[in-house]
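Collaborator request, handled under Task 6.
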Amino acid sequence: MAKIVEDFIIENMKEEDLDEILRIERESFSDPWRKEFFLQDLCKEYALPVVVRIGGRLAGYTCLWKIEDEIQIANIAIAKEYRGRGVAKRLLEWIVEQSLKQNFKYITLDVRESNSVALGLYRKYGFEEIVRRKNYYCNPVEDAIVMEKKL
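Structure tokens returned to the collaborator:
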């Protein structure tokens, strides 16, 4: 795996990031979020949408939701050209670190049952399957695995 050598910066998502985010979203998911979903997260008090920049280029993003004592990873994706370089790992470590700093007790997320790469990463970081949502995803229809990490 090629390691990242450029500057790795996590900062708040801005509306001007959305064209690039939507490109990454379309290349990452068969049922991508629409622009309106990201615009809503930019305005929600409980949402924390952030982007990852490497060498000034947008390399990935996540949309986190603060719900009582839980952080939910509502969306997370890495640009194709940055996959396999440790970006998702470092972003996930940042999410865990921020959750601990803010005294959250859990991190939760949904993932397609066929997404073995993501499942492997989440398990490596202590996430465990807590329930399955039958036929949750469309295009194609597939179960969601709900995972949780206790902090």
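The cover message to the collaborator said: "The chain has a mean pLDDT of 94. Helices lie at 18-28, 35-43, 87-101, 116-124. Please let us know whether this matches your experimental observations."
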